[in-house]
Structure prediction request, 221 residues.
Amino acid sequence: IAGITQAPTSQILAAGRRMTLRCTQDMRHNAMYWYRQDLGLGLRLIHYSNTAGTTGKGEVPDGYSVSRANTDDFPLTLASAVPSQTSVYFCASSAKAEETQYFGPGTRLLVL
Amino acid sequence: GQNIDQPTEMTATEGAIVQINCTYQTSGFNGLFWYQQHAGEAPTFLSYNVLDGLEEKGRFSSFLSRSKGYSYLLLKELQMKDSASYLCAVRDSNYQLIWGAGTKLIIKP
Prediction:
């Protein structure tokens, strides 16, 4: 079934640890995105990639990095996790930057 | 700054009609989206408006007025499964989506 997968589903992480959230899509979409969703706030864009080999910073990029080595994968790395990075992380993709975004199931991250 | 406003929570009765409003102030406008998000799940796409007027899709309709910076989502013949959060998002001049905090819709029998 075509779509977006994310791993892990949930994670408890000690502060200071490094963590990579994985995102894979099989729709051959050019654009991919990472958002975080916190209670009472709208989705906030962390990083995006309009095409393989390129990435850009969103609204809240500090403490996060991404890479886009190929069309399908867009991993998000927390170099040294802090409690304020406790959130639900959603990966999304769209055929092109100007088209509708479709979301993965999310990763629930708790940083202690 | 950029801002999307929508009510935090609304309650409606099964079988009734509900209108969820969204007002926005953004740097540029390249379309407005509505998404549905059930608790603990991912947002799913409902509708897209880029021109003024009403777009109808089954029980759901979405309206846009660009001059007023205003949209609404209209849900008819409400069902219990419509209990969810409804997210309004505007695509700005950089083609990035700016999101509202969402409206939690509670359906009562």
The mean pLDDT of chain A is 96. The radius of gyration of chain A is 13 Å. The longest strand of chain A covers residues 87-94. Chain A has no helices and eleven strands.
